[in-house]
UniProtKB/TrEMBL annotation:
Family recorded in the similarity comment: Belongs to the glycosyl hydrolase 30 family.
Domain Endo-beta-1,6-galactanase-like residues, every copy: 34-257
UniProt entry tagged with the keyword Repeat: no
Residues making up the signal peptide according to the UniProt record: 1-19
Record-linked InterPro entries: 6GAL-like (IPR039514), GH (IPR017853), GH30_C (IPR033452), Glyco_hydro_30 (IPR001139), Glyco_hydro_b (IPR013780)
This protein's record includes keyword Signal: yes
Identification of the protein by name: Glycoside Hydrolase Family 5
Keywords of the record: Hydrolase, Signal
Organism of origin: Podospora pseudopauciseta
Gene3D superfamilies: Glycosidases (3.20.20.80), Golgi alpha-mannosidase II (2.60.40.1180)
Location of the Glycosyl hydrolase family 30 beta sandwich domain: 390-477
Length: 486
């Protein structure tokens, strides 16, 4: 048996210790449910898992004066060994002229005098605390997907002369303004924001020009239908091309409140011939989720999900409540396996205690410099640590009393995510077909008492990986296959 160096490195990265591979002896024959992973049956490619720190939540990390705790927070979010290992960060592009309340300030606070006047960009080097966290994510943790998403254009570019309360970008169909056509100015402004980030060492990879365009909020918000979005893409895309940005980033659209509006908007964008200019299709599910996968060739992200209503909980499982860890392990499962999601993002990574809801994954109190981690973080860890960007989902079959999803990572490792569906533990055997025979396996469990803790996995002489999936747990088997036998 020979371990390829790269695989050993991958395993060591995960355990945080030198991997001590080897064949463990298989115990006496036990009842087990067999899960077959078929590497030849392939589905969507994964982009990964993430969260946002928009509306100055990033400041809770960036301003944290206790540097040990600051590092702990970054590790909890981005570290693949000790935290969730998130791989997508969604930042808000500010549209407000000031930073009052939790507003995100814009780089173009003043109307230069019209859409053709020379814009007056102002870069504060903070971007509501998001720049520093982005720099840490990229430089320290190797995060490669930085998503910049505007909730609105600056107010003077809109029909209602306000970045809040809806309104529409001046110049798109049905939105004419006495101030003129601001479409090109808005595209130029988005490019200017990307260039400020590039100067600071952060390459933005995804750009969104709308957020919840099907909803009018009392904070930054801008309405758009699919036809209007398509019209703006016809200006934005060539502007990105002219700025030589299309190899670095792509357009994400449309961050709708619900899946139904996403379907309608993407259909309009397609009928306008603009779907091919998108990199990613994004939707929230606050006003309704999917009943079938999105009809799009683009990767689909569930780009903002959370439990907005429940009281803050750190529970893994108590009664199946909307904020519990196991609920989120299953929510991700459903999006990925049933609805073809390539990306899955929670709403806020961190937030202060008020409101004391599950909008955030970690609750940070900046008055006391303390924080509390919800089990949702560990539900995401079970996915994000092992299902890496570029992983391809592959077929699974069998397995009673469990839900399964399997992925082949770009480095050849295989992640098999198993969630128990009953209140009992299940012994499982995982067989991999269509590729090499497993030569090294590890398993990790999250449940009421454990957070992505190592749990025994045995490797049989025939390459079958066996282990136990605890009651109401998510257990991930991480497998290194040997050379392909052909
Ligand atoms: C599962 O395996 C454990 C040992 O790994 C054994 O003690 C237990 O009896 C098995 N359970 C079933 C249902 O076979
Ligand atoms: C972070 O610091 C800025 C000043 O740089 C301040 O305006 C903001 O309120 C602070 N936010 C938090 C959450 O500490
Ligand atoms: C992630 O955590 C491990 C284990 O504590 C540590 O060795 C490593 O330096 C951390 N990574 C970063 C980028 O801080
Ligand atoms: C365009 O961008 C690519 C990749 O970011 C870079 O390699 C190339 O040098 C750029 N070309 C120009 C003309 O700036
Ligand atoms: C799943 O998404 C991929 C893009 O990530 C797309 O090519 C494929 O057609 C989608 N499959 C279904 C069933 O929608
Ligand atoms: C805590 O955060 C809030 C919200 O950003 C801010 O108003 C306040 O000044 C911060 N307090 C401290 C002590 O940093
Ligand atoms: C999954 O989440 C559980 C529950 O908190 C945790 O004990 C376990 O270690 C996690 N597993 C992985 C692979 O991250």
């Amino acid at each position: 048996m020979r371990l390829a160096g790269t695989f050993l490195t991958a395993a060591a990265a995960i355990t945080g210790a030198a991997a001590a591979p080897g064949t463990t002896t298989l115990g006496p024959r036990q009842q087990s449910s067999t899960i077959t992973v078929d590497l030849t049956r392939t589905f969507q490619k994964m982009d990964g898992f993430g969260f946002s720190l928009a509306f100055q939540r990033a400041n809770l990390i960036t301003n944290m004066s206790d540097k040990t705790k600051q590092k702990e927070l970054l590790d909890l979010l981005f570290n693949r060994t000790t935290g969730a290992g998130f791989t997508i960060l969604r930042n808000g592009i500010g549209s407000t002229p000031n930073s009052n309340s939790d507003f995100m300030n814009t780089i173009a606070p003043r109307n230069p005098g019209g859409p053709r006047a020379t814009p007056q960009y102002v870069w504060d080097g903070k971007d509501s605390g998001q720049l520093w966290v982005s720099q840490q994510a990229v430089q320290q943790y190797g995060v490669k997907q930085i998503y910049a998403n505007a909730w609105s254009a600056p107010g003077y570019m809109k029909t209602n002369n306000n970045d809040a309360n809806g309104g529409t970008l001046c110049g798109v169909p049905g939105a004419s303004c006495s101030s003129g056509d601001w479409r090109q100015a808005y595209a130029d402004y988005l490019v200017a924001y990307i260039k400020f980030y590039a100067q600071e060492g952060v390459p933005i990879t995804h750009l969104g020009f709308l957020n919840e365009p099907d909803y009018t909020a009392s904070y930054a918000s801008m309405r758009s239908d699919g036809n209007q979005a398509a019209d703006f893409i016809k200006i934005l895309y060539p502007t990105l091309e002219a700025a030589n940005l299309t190899s670095q980033l792509g357009i994400a659209c449309c961050e709708t409140m619900g899946w139904g509006s996403a379907v309608n908007m993407i259909n309009s964008i397609r009928s306008q011939g603009q779907e091919g200019r998108l990199k990613t299709v994004t939707s929230h599910t606050y006003t309704g989720g999917p009943s079938s996968p999105m009809n799009s060739r683009n990767p689909v992200w569930f780009s903002e999900q959370c439990d907005l209503n429940g009281q803050w909980t750190t529970s893994w499982y108590s009664n199946g409540g909307a904020g519990e860890g196991l609920t989120w392990a299953n929510n991700v499962y459903s999006a990925v396996v049933n609805y073809n999601a390539s990306g899955y993002l929670y709403w806020e990574g961190v937030q202060w205690p008020n409101p004391n809801t599950n909008e955030k994954i970690i609750r940070v109190d900046n008055r006391t410099n303390t924080y509390e981690v919800s089990k949702r973080l560990w539900a995401f860890a079970n996915w994000s640590r092992y299902v890496r960007p570029g992983a391809v989902r592959v077929g699974t079959s069998g397995g009673s009393g469990v839900r399964t999803a399997a992925f082949k990572n770009e480095d050849g490792t295989i992640a098999v995510v198993v969630i128990s569906t009953t209140g009992s533990a299940v012994n499982v055997s995982v067989r991999v077909s269509g590729g090499g025979t497993p030569i090294y396996a590890q398993a990790f469990v999250s449940d009421n008492t454990r957070n992505a803790a190592s749990t025994p996995a045995t490797l049989g002489p025939d390459g079958t990986v066996s282990g136990q999936v605890a009651a109401r747990s998510i257990t991930t088997f991480f497998i290194l296959p040997g050379a392909r036998k052909s």
